[in-house]
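Box 3.1 A note on notation
Throughout this textbook, protein chains are presented in two layers. The first layer is the amino acid sequence; the second is a token string describing backbone geometry. Keep the layers aligned when reading.
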Amino acid sequence: MDFIYDGLIKGLALLFAGDPEIYGVVRMSLYVSVFATALAVLIGVPLGALIAVKKFPLKKLAISAINTGMGLPPVVVGLLIMLLLSRNGPLGFLGWLYAPSGMVLAQVVIATPVITALSLAAMQSLDRKFYLQMLTLGAGQWQALWVCLKEVKLSILAAVIAGFGSVISEVGAVMMVGGNIRHQTRVLTTATVMETHMGNFDTAIALGLILLGLTFLINLALTFIQQRRAAAE
């Protein structure tokens, strides 16, 4: 058990030493996860809202597909994105394989179904007559959707928190698409796995602590905003 204690002490020392390589990994993790979550929100929230209020054939099938997407195995997503971005793949011309852009794309694919499904559920909790009433009063489709989304904003924030949580801790897809390249595509999760395999438990513990701390702080900020709005209502 001594190696665990020693690793924890050395890990904490690395945290406070301001190691530039470690904090470079932190910056890359934040860039990829925050950007991917933002894109997933821009796609998933409007899509979930539209599916919730519209009536169309195979609507139940579409909802089932979105709910299934919440459980997509990250390694499968990574494999598919890697094939798409490979030199001979249909998106190979983008040059995103083993680059941050490819990692963002993989995480968008992972987070979008989560945010879409939770946004859809939030909108379905609202009486559809409210949406129709907005249209009757002269609002356009997007204006009516915006008003409805404001009514369920607390649930939408919960969707954002869930979406961010699904990507900040993800390792399989970013490992396959990014390649864990030093100073280029290495993020906290892939670096932790690598250092563990190399037996550098102090560095792995330091990276794990940073990952836990970042996840907690960002979720704390989002939860604070959510609960403050709840208290205001």
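The chain has one domain: 19-232. The mean pLDDT is 85.
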